[in-house]
Amino acid sequence: MKLNINIKQMGKKGRRVKPVPFEYDRCPATAGELIEDTVRIMVKAFIERQKLSVESHVPEALSDETMKSMAEIGKIAFGYIYNDKEPNEDKAVDTALLAYEDGMVRLFINGEDVEYKKEGTPISLSEGDEVTFVRLAMLAGRMW
C-alpha cells in the first residue's frame, strides 16, 4: 500500500510541506500499526544512508543551489553520518508510540485528526491517502 506522508521542508524561505510517497507492506488497521510501520520504514532508510555514508568516504561536491538551501537552515553538510552505531528499531517504535499516547504527536489522515482514545483504535486507509504527523512542542513560560 502506498501512502503520502507530509514532510516539512527545512529552510527560512517557503517552509513548505511536501508529500513523500511511502510504501507499506500491509494496510495498517490501527493508528499504532501505522506509527509502528512508519517508524520501521524510517529506521531502515536511516540505516541504508548510514551504510552508504560509511562505504563512500569521499563526499560529493555540492552545487550552489544545494549550498544556498543548506545555508538557509544554518548548516552546510555533505550528508555524512558520523555515528556508526545502528539504531534500535524496537526502542524507536516504543518511543514513537509513547509520544502518540502522551499527546506529544498528533496524527492527521486526509486532514482529519485521529485522536488517541485507547490501544487499537481502528483507522481506515486507502491507497494514496495523505498522512501528517505533527510533533507538538511545549512552550516555555507561564500559563497565567
SSE blueprint and pairings:
Blueprint: E1 2-8, E2 17-23, H1 31-55, H2 64-73, H3 89-101, E3 105-109, E4 112-114, E5 130-135
Parallel strand pairs: 1-5
Antiparallel strand pairs: 1-2, 3-4, 3-5
Walkthrough of the structure:
This protein has 144 residues and is of the alpha+beta class. Helices cover 33% and strands 19% of the residues. The protein has helices at 31-55, 64-73, 89-101, and strands spanning 2-8, 17-23, 105-109, 112-114, 130-135. A five-stranded mixed sheet has the order 2-1-5-3-4. Strand 1 (2-8) and strand 2 (17-23) form a beta hairpin. Helix 1 (31-55) runs antiparallel to helix 3 (89-101). It is globular, with a radius of gyration of 18 Å. The chain starts with a strand and ends in a 9-residue tail after the last strand. The model has no long low-confidence stretch (mean pLDDT 81).
Kindly state the mean pLDDT as a whole number?
A: 81
CA distance, first residue to last residue: 47 Å
Please state the overall shape, judged from the principal axes of the Cα atoms.
Answer: globular
Number of helices: 3
What's the gist of this structure?
By secondary structure, this protein is of the alpha+beta class. It is built from three helices and five strands. The longest helix has 25 residues, at 31-55.
